[in-house]
Design brief:
The protein is of the alpha/beta class. It has 22 helices and 23 strands. The strands form 5 sheets. A 9-stranded mixed β-sheet has the order 3-2-1-4-5-7-6-8-9. Strands 11-20-16-18-14 form a 5-stranded mixed β-sheet. A hairpin with a 5-residue loop joins strand 21 and strand 22. Helix 3 packs across helix 9 and helix 7 crosses helix 8. The chain starts with a helix and ends with a helix. It binds S-adenosylmethionine. The site of S-adenosylmethionine has 22 residues, from helix 8.
């Protein structure tokens, strides 16, 4: 007798070669049904009943050993399924079952974060995730969604054998349209969504993807695989505060079609962390791709996401590890996998500046000779003259890193878009100035032609911290107590949420002491430049540490 039949305890007189015959799937169905029919999950879907009916003639006597193997955490039914159906036969459904180490670690991640009231396993297969979750969360209700009727039947058998059938439901349905029902409390979504490439996805579902993503202003590519559809379906059905962890191939991190998932993670899906698994963890048999586990909390407003490489599945459950990368930056990056490789990590107690502040370039006037003048030019109304930092030197020379007076600064002429706002005298002055500007071709510079109206420079509000960004020395970070504006010789650092003056002082001081030229890009000749996005990557003390340092 083959191992398979020994394990499945099928009572046959003539069993020669039976394990290799096509009816073996029927044998599997017969055994599964023998377990299910005694429990609370015996109300089968029509497609499952067909599978059971096709195996009705096969006698099954004793399932005791099998049940105890399941109770001890094994999945003999799932193992048999995977052995009976070749990878080629399973591919159209993306049926690849997850090794127990990864299942345990992902459920462990959820347990370290929440005690969910409900667990949903989308594309449950034989139910490896939903079973482990059922054992881990004794009070949670369990929902397994599986389209393949034989796999769904195995999942029912496993839940029944494990004694979890009383609080479980198995929906034999397409996850994208399954009715999960409602839940009072947190739902945890955990599983391994099927990896099916786009050319095996029908036009109806491609249209669903395109329309649904567009209705949420998410970037979409119809080339997205089925696993991306599952993420979107989760976003649609989940409630704020729900959490999830899905293991998938990691190619979505870089390819164009992955932009939908990347967009979701930096937005409503609330990406918390991405863990790229070392190839040795064998998440996917027969697949020459690395796997990644993506963790999310719906509606999370966290400004950064943790990214890390994981050497083995056991490391997954440790929430404290991972390099924080600001979502602001992730939105700008088209490929995410290089971010996993980058050192150095942000030190303990520090965050990236971009988490606390936005960094904006200063305004480009298009013709400094026309738009920059003395701060008390009598030819123009005072209300159109804005004292501004117009030379990097003004920041390098700031006394002890503080700009406390506007006196030595020149002014940028920033005119209102609507000149009728001005009184008659002021408007007359401005009109005369505009004739002068036109004579100097200031209206036809590239920049002027691309702003509306051409005479409005559009200065930003004063930034509480100003920084130089191009020199042969580290940037100057200057507290702007004077309220100066700035043109594009400087970047402005603007807190995302209000920060006290003391905290801003401490932040500026820490930037001054902590930044080296090696953190920017160096050009030939040794010039170092910090783009705003590069400046946002500078590690700075976390808000808690800043508060401590300021007190
Ligand atoms: C990658 S397997 C994961 C199985 C199981 N959760 C595990 O990790 O061991 C994906 C499962 O999704 C199922 N599936 C494929 N398309 C589906 C769909 N549209 N809705 C629900 N399940 C689907 C497949 O039959 C397969 O069992």
């Amino acid at each position: 007798m083959s191992d398979f039949k020994q394990m499945l305890l099928i009572d046959r007189d003539d069993d020669a070669g039976a394990a290799t015959r096509p009816e073996s799937e029927q044998e599997l169905a017969a055994v599964a049904w023998a377990i299910v029919r005694s429990g609370a999950l015996a109300d089968l879907a029509a497609t499952e009943s067909e599978v059971v009916n096709s195996a009705a003639e096969i006698p099954v006597t004793d399932t005791g050993e099998l049940v105890s193997a399941i109770q001890q955490g094994g999945d003999p039914l799932g193992d048999a399924f995977v052995r009976l159906r070749s990878p080629k036969q399973r591919r159209p459904m993306g049926a690849v079952y997850t090794p127990p180490g990864i299942v345990d670690a992902m459920v462990g991640w959820i347990a370290a974060k929440e005690q969910p009231a409900r667990v949903v396993d989308p594309g449950a297969g034989s139910g490896r995730f939903v079973l482990q979750a059922g054992r881990t969360f004794p009070d949670a209700s369990l929902v397994a969604v599986e389209l393949d009727p034989l796999a769904a039947l195995l999942c029912r058998a496993n839940l029944t054998a494990a004694g979890l059938d009383d609080r479980a439901r198995v929906l034999v349905d397409d996850y994208r349209e399954a009715d999960l029902g409602s839940c009072h409390g947190v739902t945890a979504f955990v599983g391994n969504p099927p990896y099916v490439r786009h050319h095996q996805i029908g036009s109806r579902w491609k249209q669903w993807l395109t329309n649904t993503a567009a209705s949420r202003d998410l970037p979409v590519s119809a080339l997205a695989g089925l696993h991306i559809h599952f993420f979107l379906a989760t976003l649609l059905t989940a409630q704020p505060g729900d959490i999830g962890a899905f293991v998938t191939s990691s190619e979505w991190l870089d390819v164009n079609y992955g932009k939908l998932l990347r967009g979701m993670l930096t937005d409503g899906l609330g990406g918390e962390s991405i863990h790229v698994l070392a190839p040795e963890t064998l998440a996917f048999e027969d697949a020459a791709t690395t796997a990644s586990v993506t963790c999310f909390q719906i509606g999370s407003e966290a400004r950064s996401l943790k990214m890390r490489r994981v050497a083995n599945a056991g490391d997954l459950a440790d929430l404290s590890k991972g390099r924080r990368v600001s979502k602001q930056r992730l939105k700008q990056e088209k490929r995410w996998s290089p971010l996993f490789a980058q050192a150095p990590p942000v030190p303990e107690g520090f965050v990236e500046l971009g988490e606390l502040c936005r960094v904006h370039r200063g305004a480009v006037t298009g013709a400094n000779a026309t738009w920059i003048t003395s701060a008390n030019n009598p030819q123009l109304p005072a209300r159109t003259l804005f004292p501004s930092v117009t030379k990097a030197r003004e920041l390098f020379d700031a006394d002890e890193g503080v700009l406390s007076s506007l006196r030595s600064l020149r002014a940028v002429i920033d005119l209102p878009a609507d000149l009728s706002e001005l009184d008659d005298d002021d408007r007359a002055l401005v009109k005369r100035f505009l004739r002068f500007a036109e004579r100097n071709d200031a209206h036809s510079s590239y920049v002027a032609r691309h702003r509306n109206p051409w005479w409005s420079v559009g200065l930003r509000s004063p930034a509480p911290i100003l920084a130089t960004y191009m020199a042969r020395r580290p940037p100057a970070f200057v507290r702007n107590l004077a309220g100066a504006r700035h043109v594009n010789v400087a970047h402005g650092i603007y807190p995302r949420d209000p920060l006290s003056d003391d905290t801003l002082d401490t932040l500026a001081a820490s930037l001054r002491s902590g930044v080296s030229v090696s953190q920017g890009r160096t050009y030939a000749g040794g010039l170092t430049k910090f783009e705003p996005s590069e400046m946002e990557r500078i590690p700075v003390p976390s808000p808690a540490l800043l508060a401590e340092m300021s007190s």
